[in-house]
# Entry
Amino acid sequence: MLDTDQLRSFLAIVDTGSFTRAAERVNKTQSAVSMHIKRLEDRLGGKALFAKQGRGVRLTDDGERLIDYARRMLQMEAAALAAVAGTGLAGRLRLGIPDDYAESFLPEILTRFVRRHPLVEMTVICGSSLSLAERMQARDLDLAIVTNGAGIAGAEVVREEPLRWVVGPRATIHHERPLPLALSGPTCAWRLAATAALDGTGVPWRMALVSANYAGIAPVVGAGLAVTVLPPSAIRADHRALRPDEGLPDLPPCRIGLIESPSERSREALALAEEIRSTLASRSGSRDERDLLAGERQPMRIVG
# Structure
């Protein structure tokens, strides 16, 4: 039989992209994690799960094949403990998140959390950062992921990224003056940062589209009709981040925050908060910064 502790170490490496961060996640030393992988490979008939690549390692084909089986086994283990031993989490949670981040982070956060705690019922509410902060104050949400801009108190910064000007893959709209922008409402931290940067460098601009939902902004940007601003983790594959030499001013960093209830935090909420911190801190973004500038993707590499 396969050892679930060894599978847990294997998936921690896959999820964090690093043996070092995997060891922190499973609360073991890095040498213990490495031994888990060696024993797991021996149990699988000597099949290598990782191969050296430069200073790091990458998943082998056998390692890729093992991922889904490992996740299902750990999910079944968690479900059995929750149903029979009564040791698992089994409650309800309400998570708020801006739709700018939902596509980038939400699938990974929910997948990892639900696999560990399959009996927890999740409700996800999308909205602006300010509205989510207000709902946290009204106790309509248990946790909220927000852009940690002005006016949001009590947000713990869990990730920081550069903010980038974004256009369609072959667009030249960023040369047009006044610059056509597609952004959210007037209280949006990214909109305030973008317009302040343009005003500060004397670049004229006009608002071509205002939408509270990125689903409405993305097609306009992709069609080359307007410019928007996003952190690298939120930039879609069919969009392109402008290079610093393409005529638009530098933007301040984007800080992603987590708001938790100051009181009455359930075990479920504490577990989800830790999953959010782990996911946002460990990910390098949906695409590497160089890939965003070049419009190309690079294969994932796990570092030691």
About this structure: The two ends are 28 Å apart (CA to CA). The chain is about 45% helix and 20% strand.
